[in-house]
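Re: duplicated header lines in exported structure tokens

Our pipeline writes sequence and tokens for each protein into one text file. With two proteins the header for the second block appears twice in some exports. Here is an export where it did not happen, for reference. First protein block:
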Amino acid sequence: MVSIQVKQTEKVGRPDIDAFEAVMFREDRKLGYFVGFEFTGDALFEIDRFQRKEGRTIKPLTVREILDQEIARKLA
């Protein structure tokens, strides 16, 4: 199983990622998806650090990326 977090604020920051990491540890998850409108540089840095240090992966997805994928499928 994977963990999924969706944030409805303008930007996802490092504190949001820190909280998600705690959930991943508590639920013993190796993979998580975090959906937001935009990610700060600090958030992306923390995601990278978490993967290198803990061997767990957080995949940041923006709403725009998700919508673009859906549109691309519809146009194909």
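Second protein block, exported in the same file:
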Amino acid sequence: MYKANGLTVRSPSTNLSIPSSLATIVSGVIGLDDSAQFVHTNHTTGDAPPPAAFVTGTPCSSYWGEKQATGFTKP
């Protein structure tokens, strides 16, 4: 256990090693430390308004072929 930036966190004191028989199976190890405590994301409170260029899409067709894409060349 280590104290850093006012927090007590867990972290290995030596390099990780695994048996050579597992070397071809193990691709990574997670959860050995508490470093995630130092990650802070910026969050807003409440609902943010949509961006200025936000355009609501038109509703889908009620039946097959009601609204068809236009302005495209045929392949």
